[in-house]
Amino acid sequence: MTVDPGYHTRLLTPETWDDFAALVEGNNGVWGGCWCMGFHAEGFGKAPTPEGNRAAKQAHTTAGTVHQVLVYAGDECVGWCQFGTPTELPNIKNRKAYERELDAAPAWRIGCIFTGSKHRGRGVSRAAVAAVLDEITAAGGGVVEAYPEQVVDRPAQRGAYLHTGPESLFEEFGFTRDRRIAKWRWVMRLRVEA
Ligand SMILES: CC(C)(COP(=O)(O)OP(=O)(O)OC[C@H]1O[C@@H](n2cnc3c(N)ncnc32)[C@H](O)[C@@H]1OP(=O)(O)O)[C@@H](O)C(=O)NCCC(=O)NCCS
Predict the structure, then answer these.
(1) Residue 2 falls within a domain, yes or no?
(2) DSSP character for 18?
(3) 170: pLDDT strictly greater than 90
(4) Does the Cβ of 168 fall within 6 Å of ligand 1?
(5) Mean pLDDT value of segment 107-118
(6) Does 151 sit in the ligand 1 pocket, CB within 6 Å?
(7) Is the CB of 77 within 6 Å of ligand 1?
(8) This model's pTM is above 0.90
(9) Residues of the domain holding 176
(10) How far is the CA of 46 from the centre of ligand 1 (A)?
């Protein structure tokens, strides 16, 4: 697995907020304005609006309660991968099925992953996951979970459907299947040594 050296990464912080915001706004708000809030503890709330999601995400960024790698091509932010502890990111998809057979919580989980529509198929998400694993290594390592979509043995899926990433991407990094939590969604795990 080789990460394209043409990309570089930064964390989402108040300094990089405008770059992240430009990516979201350049992609129709991403899912109509989710602003990558779905995995956070408050989720989308009862009556979500794009403006409310934006403000909530910016508040997390200001408070330092978000972990998110941004991928850059030159000065342009072209993608991201969110990660965090289970406490920081409790709202995974298929949560009931996940908890039914949960033995021990992971140290980290990978949440939402996104590449700008004009930059797909060029290794952006690969660069994002590589940087996330570097961050986790630097933070002490531990078991990391991802919840990707199976892509083999099923019809081809458009990228829009893969907001937790394709399974093949995580396989490249050594993640292995732990258990199935939906028809096409798996818990995958990797132990990262510090
Ligand atoms: C899924 C997604 C993140 C992939 O990003 P990407 O930068 O295009 O992916 P990469 O080029 O790094 O691909 C890495 C590997 O992932 C897999 N992959 C990527 N897109 C895939 C797809 N549509 N179907 C199957 N596998 C795919 C492949 O194994 C690929 O390796 P290969 O090119 O050597 O075959 C992107 O399509 C996307 O952002 N989709 C929208 C998801 C979304 O809406 N997220 C936000 C919701 S809040």
Answers:
(1) no
(2) H
(3) yes
(4) yes
(5) 97
(6) yes
(7) no
(8) yes
(9) 7-192
(10) 30
